[in-house]
User: Fold this.
Amino acid sequence: MRVLHVYRTFFPDSQGGGEEAIRQIAHGVSEFGWRPHVFCLSPSPVPRRMRLSGLMVHREWSMASPASCDLASLPGLVRFQRLARRFDLIHFHFPWPLADVLAELLPKGLPYVVTYHSDIVRQQRALAVYRPLMKRFLGRAARVVATSPNYRASSPVLRDYVPNAAVIPLGLEEERYPAVEPERVAQWRRRLGEGFFLFVGVLRYYKGLEFLVEAARLSGLPVVVVGQGPLAVALQNQGQGIQNLHFLGYVEDADKVALYQLAAAVCFPSHLRSEAFGVTLLEGAMYAKPLISAEIGTGTSFVNIHGETGLVVPPADPGSLAQAMTTLARDPALRNRLGAGARSRFQRLFTARQVGEQYASLYNEVVGRIVAPRGL
Assistant:
């Protein structure tokens, strides 16, 4: 059975959590008899077909991206329609308004499912125009999947249009991460020391990094920020003169793994609902690191349970963030307990195999093969 994942962007053009989530879901279902492909848009889709991390990726031109909505050319839409005929199931990843148009192009009788990653948060005026199409798109889906019970409960869209959405979390395939390289760990230890507070991700508006910069200043504790993004220059300007704050930009996966080994905790200060889950929190949990996140009513507080896997603080509050960092810095026993709790929760809920099994079961239900997935 063949499934086509559809999203506005994918590796290697972008490196966000959504792209990683698609990759992990795709690899997960492949263990259960499904052959996954990916369709996406690209500013430079040459070649149009490429094999990446064991997945066949089909790319079309991104002609423009108003309000973060990548748009395809008319020939690209035609090619998508032809491509879709080769699959048993289409898996859309929301939000991407063009996907609602692509759904209208599907052959009659070809089912689709939707993973609802996030509400549309910033583009409220555009949402008012788009809402009827969104309602039709979600209403025609064979199944809609939220990534956490927290998000299903707090999303006004899911509450109004899909109150019975399934819940399948995101997961990680630990085996696909590079092995720890002792020499690489030693190199980073010489450069940064150890026991720092680590952020990994794209430097976007909803990540709350301006509050992490201020928390670094307030606490005096070492903070390491890994990643690139549109806020990089502004954050570096804000952090000038803070000697305990380090911006590393993009690093290779092997270096990222080494940094997780050296970190005291993972700091994930996202303060807006655009942050629906937080793959970085999963990575931190996978490496048995205590987590610090903000309570924003989304999946971040499904991954990170206050007092069990880490500490949860109010959003956009650098003082509380600095206090949480200080609490962990001063209490090694607490760090160890929370880190072990994070690892245990990861193994119970968030491995790629578990997530893949649930998605494969949902796929099978949709195409009429076997039973529905386990709920959460």
The first strand starts at residue 2 and ends at 6. Residues 139 and 161 are 7 Å apart (CA to CA). Confidence is low (pLDDT under 50) at residues 370-376. The chain is about 40% helix and 20% strand.
